Amino acid sequence: MVFRFTEENDKELMRKAIAQKPFAAKYGDSARVWATVAERMSAAIQIIVLEKQVRDRVRLLKKNWRAGELRSALGSGIEETLEAVNEQSHYDTLAGLVGQYLLPEEAFIDDKKKRISNKKADEASVNRCAIELVDEAVLRRALRLNESVLDDGSSDSEASITSSSTSSTPAKNQRVATASKRTPTKTQRKRKSVFPMEAERQDKRMRDDMELRRQQFDQKMQSQLQLHQDGIGLEREMHESSMQMEIARTEAQETGEANRLRAQQESEECNRQLILECVRVFSEAFQKTRSE
């Protein structure tokens, strides 16, 4: 059976939607909130409506309201101000209830977009800082390499001067000088660069971040799958209950129709017997009258 919404049903639906605020539900809880709206709507109008019917009807009412507002603005260019004295009186009408529902919904959507843009800006700032740190580490490494090359050149020149000035010394002193020349100085020792350490740290942080995101994604997918299964089960139960109610109502209608036909037949049979009895009595009375 197709359920057709009347204006009173639409008003009651918008009141339930305003009370529940399905647009502010957390990710994955929207279906549960709409199911609650459908249950309360069904209890209010004493007719079972499904969650999809309620959601589609609210979407259609919002579309019609926006189209009406656009036509009014283009037609007259006059609209009610927010400081109107009798503004609350319009909330008893369907258009006023739809507008009351759309006002916090649009504010919530704008706030959500603002939070997302702020989050993206923070992520961009963090990435920019990381790039600056890596560039600074590369620059420091290049400067250290340049200093080490200059120190190696100066130490080599000093060693050549020392060897030329001590060429007339005994062989023992020459072996000592040669050994000291082969021994690496402090500036010649290889320094460990900060850039590989920074790169390893960045790689480790990226791997940890990717693993955390993967775990969060798996958890969200599992929760969404569970909510989807729960929603399907709830919709199946509501459909079965509506079918049972429809079958019970059909059986009641058939039983009532059968009882009515039976009563009508019994009444017709009684009337026929009464007519026959009247005819028989009249005939007997007529025969007695003639015999006398």
Structure description:
This protein is mainly α. The protein has a domain at 194-279. It contains 6 helices and no strands. It has helices spanning 7-20, 30-45, 51-75, 94-165, 171-182, 194-291. Helix 1 packs parallel to helix 4 (94-165) and helix 4 (94-165) runs antiparallel to helix 6 (194-291). The longest helix is centred in the last third of the chain and has 98 residues, at 194-291. It is elongated. The two termini are 72 Å apart. Residues 179-189 have low confidence and may be disordered. Residues 183-193 have a biased composition (Basic residues). Residues 156-169 have a biased composition (Low complexity). Residues 150-203 are annotated as: Disordered.
Essential attributes:
292 residues, mainly alpha
Share of helix, binned? over 70%
What is the average per-residue confidence, as pLDDT, rounded to a whole number?
A: 78
- Number of DSSP helices? 6
Largest sheet: none
Written as H for each helix and E for each strand, in order along the chain, the element string is HHHHHH
Q: What general form does the structure show? A: elongated
Our estimate of the beta-strand percent is under 5%
Structural class: mainly alpha
Uncertain spans, ≥5 residues at pLDDT below 50?
179-189
Cα-based radius of gyration, to the nearest Å: 46 Å
Span between N and C termini?
72 Å
Say how many strands there are.
0
